[in-house]
């Protein structure tokens, strides 16, 4: 790629200042993106990445922000200064010349419109296509992103598709008008490693075919290392460093960049030493959980979890890994009796809890608590933090009303939050702080087991490391056991004494973490490991475009699937309803 001065940038941002009320979120940011180039914006939550992306499309006003000053210019055959465009001009620009892929496709797609109707809406708005012409163009868009059985997908709704397929639909919609610039805002954060690898490969392939510029926003430095030509590092709304990916990652200058790289998990860094377990706190035997079926159902029952047996020792962390739809979360919810198993036994601290009535189960619920992926969605926005973190203890009769404040202060202190947090509300905290609040709530009943279901997947690398270190400290201090569910295998390695690998509702491999990761026995485990992005400067090639070192991993994935795309394999065993 030629980045000489003669090759004018497709998009130029100059001295951008973005504010929310009196608070400035972006301070004097400048960068260029050239045709066919991938520029990555990296930084922690609150660094200004998404505010910058939304400003480029002038969507920042819808989020309560404003462009205080600066220039955002798109060049090409019809140069335009985006900050001065009117409403009709912006509608023509969005989706046509500049398109965006958002982090969570389920909230970005209209749940009451079919996939075909949503794509056709874009085609009608920008290209004037209607009827059969729009249908054929929508079908071509799905075929371009390699969605299996595209004709059937046009008539389906978003909830009927897996996460990987929904993200492909978002990409198809973004590329229908062949934009000059594609903004990808954390498009793979919530995806498992093999689906992520497929999506990254797809974006790179389409970028090469269309020659578009890509602004890729992520907190995953391994992904940046794989796909980006250049990197801009943001901290507190300011650019602290910029350069070619290979050069910057090999020798970062800014202390903040060094901190980010140090916090980024790397597969192979080592795992905790397996414990000499003297007490088993959880024993699951031949557990099966099925969805569907029944007298009035048109579909036969599908086993989301099939004949699973696991054990968890006191003070031990068992990591549970596998792709989206493999049954990880269903297993966790079945163990907690949030969904009812179809068969099998669940023994908690020597007591069988499968089959217990709701009333009989209540005393046992204090022994096992859950920390969910999205802390904001799992916190009541109308309750003060005092009430949020002490509610489980209050419901279990472990504290009276007068004692809730003192307990809240103690719990918040244990998770590293100051006393002034006690009277605030969930929306007043960052994502990392909210996850600490969720952990404090789980600790309020002194549980013996914490189930962490993708508890750090939505957090940036620094906050994710702080949360995992906090959980490790709690485990060492209180002897709490953990079932740690994640699609990030490098994070699982860092925290888990043992690992269980799940495929199509079954455990296909289990053992000490180091043993499983260093010498995997099952082909599926090898596939998972081959797809993990690596932050490895030794293999980087300076100044090259697209996914540099992911091709061997993707070849292995495709070969194991018999040449089919991964999402086709995923869709064959996707279970509706969880």
From TrEMBL:
PROSITE patterns: ABC_TRANSPORTER_1, ABC_TRANSPORTER_2. Keywords: ATP-binding, Cell membrane, Hydrolase, Membrane, Nucleotide-binding, Transport. GO terms for biological process: peptide transport; transmembrane transport. Coiled coil: none annotated. It is found in: Cell inner membrane. Gene3D superfamilies: P-loop containing nucleotide triphosphate hydrolases. It comes from the Bacteria. One of its GO terms (cellular component) is plasma membrane. It is a peripheral membrane protein. Residues 11-261, 282-529 form the ABC transporter domain. One of its GO terms (molecular function) is ATP binding. SUPFAM superfamilies: P-loop containing nucleoside triphosphate hydrolases. The keyword Metal-binding does not apply. Its EC number is 3.6.3.-. The keyword Ribonucleoprotein does not apply. Belongs to the ABC transporter superfamily. This is Glutathione import ATP-binding protein GsiA. It comes from Pacificibacter marinus.
């Amino acid at each position: 790629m030629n980045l000489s001065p003669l090759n004018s940038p497709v998009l130029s941002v100059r001295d951008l200042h973005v504010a929310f009320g009196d608070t400035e979120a972006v301070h004097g940011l400048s960068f260029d993106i050239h045709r066919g180039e991938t520029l990555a914006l990296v930084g922690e939550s609150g660094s200004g990445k998404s505010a910058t992306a939304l400003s480029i499309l002038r969507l920042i006003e819808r989020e309560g922000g404003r462009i205080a000053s600066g220039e955002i210019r798109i060049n090409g055959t019809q140069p335009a200064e985006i900050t001065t465009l009117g409403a009709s001009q912006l509608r023509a620009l969005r989706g046509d010349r500049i398109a965006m892929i958002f982090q969570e496709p389920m909230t970005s797609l209209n749940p009451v419109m079919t996939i075909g109707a949503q794509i056709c809406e874009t085609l009608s708005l920008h290209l004037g296509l209607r009827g059969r012409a729009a249908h054929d163009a929508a079908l071509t868009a799905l075929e371009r992103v390699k969605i299996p059985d595209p004709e059937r997908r046009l008539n389906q709704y978003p909830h009927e598709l897996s996460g990987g397929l929904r993200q492909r639909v978002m990409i198809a919609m973004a590329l229908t008008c062949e934009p000059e610039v594609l903004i990808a805002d954390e498009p793979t954060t919530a995806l498992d490693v093999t689906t992520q690898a497929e999506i990254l490969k797809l974006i790179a392939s389409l970028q090469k075919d269309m020659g578009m510029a890509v602004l890729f926003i992520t907190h995953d430095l391994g992904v940046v290392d794989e796909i980006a030509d250049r990197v801009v590092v943001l901290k507190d709304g300011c650019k602290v460093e910029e350069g070619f990916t290979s050069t910057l990652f090999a020798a970062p200058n800014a202390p903040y960049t060094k901190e980010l790289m140090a916090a980024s998990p790397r597969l192979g860094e080592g795992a905790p030493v397996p414990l000499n377990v003297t007490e088993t706190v959880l024993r699951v035997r031949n557990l099966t959980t099925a969805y569907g079926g029944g007298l009035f159902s048109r579909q036969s029952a599908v086993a989301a979890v099939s004949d699973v047996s696991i054990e968890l020792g006191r003070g031990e962390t068992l990591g549970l890994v596998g792709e989206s739809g493999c049954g990880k979360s269903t297993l966790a919810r079945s163990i907690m009796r949030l969904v009812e198993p179809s068969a099998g036994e669940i023994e908690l601290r020597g007591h069988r809890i499968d089959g217990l009535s709701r009333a009989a189960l209540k005393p046992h619920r204090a022994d096992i608590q859950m920390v969910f992926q999205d802390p904001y969605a799992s916190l009541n926005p109308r309750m003060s933090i005092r009430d949020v973190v002490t509610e489980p203890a209050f419901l279990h009769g472990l504290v009276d009303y007068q004692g809730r404040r003192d307990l809240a202060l103690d719990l918040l202190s244990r998770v590293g939050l100051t006393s002034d947090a006690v009277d605030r509300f969930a929306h007043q905290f960052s994502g990392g702080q909210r996850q600490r609040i969720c952990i404090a709530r789980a600790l309020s009943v002194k549980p013996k087991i914490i189930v962490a279901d993708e508890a750090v997947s939505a957090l940036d690398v620094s906050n994710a490391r702080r949360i995992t270190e906090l959980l490790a400290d709690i485990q060492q201090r209180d002897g709490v056991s953990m079932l740690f569910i994640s699609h990030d295998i490098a994070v699982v390695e860092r925290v888990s004494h043992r690992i269980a690998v799940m495929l199509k509702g079954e455990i296909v491999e289990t053992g000490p973490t180091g043993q499983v990761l260093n010498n995997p026995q099952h082909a599926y485990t090898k596939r998972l490991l081959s797809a993990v992005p690596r932050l490895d400067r030794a293999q980087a090639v300076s100044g090259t475009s697209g996914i540099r070192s992911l091709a061997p991993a993707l070849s292995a994935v495709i070969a194991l699937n018999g040449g089919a795309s991964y999402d086709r394999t995923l869709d064959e065993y996707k279970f509706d309803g969880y």
